[in-house]
Each structure stands twice: as C-alpha cells, then as structure tokens.
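To the wet lab folks,

You asked to see what we're planning to order before we commit. Fair enough. Below is the target structure as tokens, and below that is the sequence we designed to fit it. If anything looks off to you, flag it before the synthesis order goes out.
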C-alpha cells in the first residue's frame, strides 16, 4: 500500500482493518451497488451534517439518512489492499463484512467513514493554488448543498445551475 495514501482504521472481528478511499474503492462500490459513488457521498454528507446540529452529533440519525446496504458496501469496498501484482484484493467478502458489522459498530465506524471519504477529496487550498484551477462555475456547482438550500419553498430539491446553464458557463470564453 502506498504510504502516502490516506487511510482510516476500523476494527472488524477484532482485527484492525484500514479503509482506503482510492478510485478502486469507488469503482468496487459502484460495481457492487449499481449506484453512483458521488451521489452516495452527497447523501452521506447531507445526512451527517443534518445529524450534527448544534455541534453534537447524532450518529443513529445520520445513519438513518442513507441505506445501510450502501454503507455496508462502501465499508467493504474501502477495506481492500493490494497484492504483489498491485491489483486490489479483499480479505473479506461483502457478506463477511456484513456479518461482522452490527448497529453499534456501525455507529462507531460511521464518523471514521465520513473522515475517510472527505479526506480523499481534494483540499480547497490545493485547488486554488494549482496551476490549472477548476473553472469558477464548476467550483460553484461542486459546493456542498446545505439542508436549507436543498429544500425550496415548493418542497423540491435545489440543484443550483441547470445543466444547460452549467454547460454554457463552461464553454464561455
């Protein structure tokens, strides 16, 4: 495993397991779940932020905001390592990971899962200092949506720019 790669350590079945959030994790999650990882990440972040109002977190409330099978699949996908051939390997199957997880363990693991997923994203300062920063309109679209912005008066979700406006803004000179 690359020593510069950020990992989060959890305990499964009495054994320390490092969760790694690289592209192989995301691909494995998407393949097993059939879901888009970035949509899951958005759900996780929204659920976690809603459950941490007033500086006190309610992990059970945060977990209830997403499908447990998605959290289960993400933990499995992130629990991979690399073999001698530099290919990802999983010590445990998806069902073995599920058997080792209980609600109380999930409540301990969830904050670490949030840390791991958020630490794998690029830092804002690095992006601003790079030679090729992301287009400002893309940065605007990528900003997390707060729970207030997510619920418009009509009850529908707010997605910021329309697809047409976003595309037009990116193609402008």
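Sequence we intend to order:
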């Amino acid at each position: 495993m690359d020593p510069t790669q950020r990992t989060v350590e959890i305990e499964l079945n009495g054994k320390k397991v490092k969760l790694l959030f690289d592209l192989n994790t995301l691909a494995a999650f998407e393949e097993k779940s059939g879901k888009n990882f970035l949509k899951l990440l958005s759900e996780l972040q929204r659920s976690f932020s809603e459950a941490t109002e007033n500086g006190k977190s309610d992990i059970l409330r945060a977990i209830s905001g997403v499908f447990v099978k998605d959290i289960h699949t993400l933990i499995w996908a992130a629990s991979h390592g690399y073999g001698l051939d530099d290919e990802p390997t999983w010590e445990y199957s998806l069902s073995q990971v599920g058997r080792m997880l209980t609600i109380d363990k999930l409540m301990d693991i969830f904050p670490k899962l949030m840390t791991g997923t958020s630490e794998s994203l690029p830092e804002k300062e690095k992006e601003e200092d790079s030679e090729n920063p992301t287009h400002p309109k893309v940065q605007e679209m990528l900003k997390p949506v707060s729970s207030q912005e997510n619920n418009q008066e009509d009850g529908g979700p707010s997605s910021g720019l329309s697809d047409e406006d976003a595309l037009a803004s990116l193609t402008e000179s």
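Structural context that might help your review: Confidence is low (pLDDT under 50) at residues 124-135, 145-159. The longest helix spans residues 103-119.

Thanks,
Computational group
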